[in-house]
């Protein structure tokens, strides 16, 4: 409380300086940047703003109310301007905006490529591509044919387009979470219009490659994954916690794409790989949602671990059990070596052990 009172006193002294009083004219001193921030409702606590301002100020040299200008007091002009904006927002809205550093726009091709990779979540995309490559190989697809690089390229472009559209839709929410507030659209490194056009080009190019170099089935499966992720899963995250199960659909389609690219149809191997990924995603995302439940709740995302942690832990275990059973029934339908059965038993046993730990005691350690 004493620290907060000191910070408020600093703000009061700053507001009373002649420079700030001149800025508190008819426009209330709100800069264009802060007006835009207000429209976006990116509002933060008064304490955080005054803490960041007070850290830059030579507090002992602050003038008494009615004393000379800020130049005489030794107060830096930039700090005064920041405090002015904070004070003006507080006066007009009852809230304040935390000054956030904006990254410059991309000034070179290298910068732009880096931004595109961040928008497309290239690390996540590479895992999606891997889940399509393995079924392609398992179904007898040739690595040294045009189909394999076409599958890799087309899937990469479609996945990056889906992730970019997701960031465009959630850019305001991303600004509220520490984990995502440095994303390119949040910090202003690229405009939403630019990102939208880039995603459209990537989606179109990726779909064309899959359609003509692989086959139409692979293309339509990829588009199904893209549209279900962007237009169903993404908005559902703010409506109901069932979004986690809906999100397994776009996640389970890339393995089917790989199998379809190999021989133009879907068989037992494709369905097995898609089922493994669908069942695995549930405990994975429930655990991830538990770790980030406070951030998700603050941003307005409806996640089951935020609403009922124990139910989430129970469902994580039951889906892990189903995944183990799914893996062990494959030998009934396809010829498998004893190596596969041994590895499936050991890996699923370890997975079940950790899931049971999480069910018994839901916490960040389990």
Automatic annotation (TrEMBL):
Q: Is Amino-acid biosynthesis tagged as a keyword? A: no
Q: Which organism is it from?
A: Eutreptiella gymnastica
Q: Which GO terms describe its cellular component?
A: membrane; mitochondrion
- Protein's recorded name: Heme O synthase
One Pfam entry name: UbiA
Gene Ontology molecular function? protoheme IX farnesyltransferase activity
Tree of life domain: Eukaryota
Q: Which InterPro entries match?
A: Protohaem_IX_farnesylTrfase (IPR006369), UbiA_prenyltransferase (IPR000537), UbiA_sf (IPR044878)
Swiss-Prot/TrEMBL keywords: Heme biosynthesis, Membrane, Transferase, Transmembrane, Transmembrane helix
Query: Where does the record place it?
Result: Membrane
- PANTHER family recorded for this chain? PROTOHEME IX FARNESYLTRANSFERASE, MITOCHONDRIAL
Query: Transmembrane stretches, by residue range?
Result: 185-203, 209-232, 244-262, 268-291, 312-332
Q: Does the keyword Transmembrane helix apply?
A: yes
């Amino acid at each position: 409380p004493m620290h907060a009172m000191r910070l408020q006193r600093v703000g009061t002294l700053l507001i009373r300086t002649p420079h700030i009083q001149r800025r508190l004219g008819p426009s209330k001193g709100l800069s264009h940047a802060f007006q835009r921030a207000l429209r976006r409702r990116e509002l933060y606590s008064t304490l955080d703003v005054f803490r960041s301002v007070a850290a830059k100020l030579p507090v002992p040299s602050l003038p008494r109310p009615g004393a000379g200008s800020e130049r005489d007091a030794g107060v830096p002009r930039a700090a005064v301007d920041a405090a002015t904006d904070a004070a003006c927002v507080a006066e007009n809205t009852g809230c304040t905006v935390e000054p956030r550093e904006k990254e410059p726009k991309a000034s070179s091709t290298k910068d732009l490529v880096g931004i595109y990779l961040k928008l497309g979540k290239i690390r996540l995309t590479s895992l999606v591509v891997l889940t399509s490559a393995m079924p392609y190989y398992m179904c007898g697809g040739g690595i040294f044919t045009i189909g394999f690089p076409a599958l890799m390229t087309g899937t990469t472009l479609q996945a990056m387009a889906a992730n970019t559209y997701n960031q465009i839709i959630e850019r305001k929410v991303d600004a509220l979470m520490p984990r995502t507030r440095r994303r390119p659209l949040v910090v202003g490194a690229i405009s939403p219009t630019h990102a939208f056009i880039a995603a459209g080009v990537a989606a179109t190019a990726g779909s064309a490659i899959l359609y003509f170099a692989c086959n139409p089935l692979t293309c339509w499966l990829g588009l199904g994954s893209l549209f279900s992720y962007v237009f169903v899963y993404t908005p559902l995250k703010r409506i109901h916690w069932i979004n986690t199960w809906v999100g397994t659909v776009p996640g389970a389609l890339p393995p089917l794409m790989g199998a379809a690219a190999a021989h133009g149809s879907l068989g037992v191997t494709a369905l097995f790989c898609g089922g493994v990924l669908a069942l695995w995603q549930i405990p994975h995302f429930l655990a991830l949602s538990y770790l980030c439940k406070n951030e998700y709740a603050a941003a307005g995302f409806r996640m089951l671990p935020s609403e009922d942690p124990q139910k989430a832990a129970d469902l994580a275990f039951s889906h892990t059990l189903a995944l183990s059973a799914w893996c062990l029934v494959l030998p009934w339908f396809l010829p498998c070596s004893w190596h596969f059965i041994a590895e499936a038993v050991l890996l699923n046993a370890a997975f079940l052990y950790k899931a049971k730990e999480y069910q018994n005691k839901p916490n960040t350690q389990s």
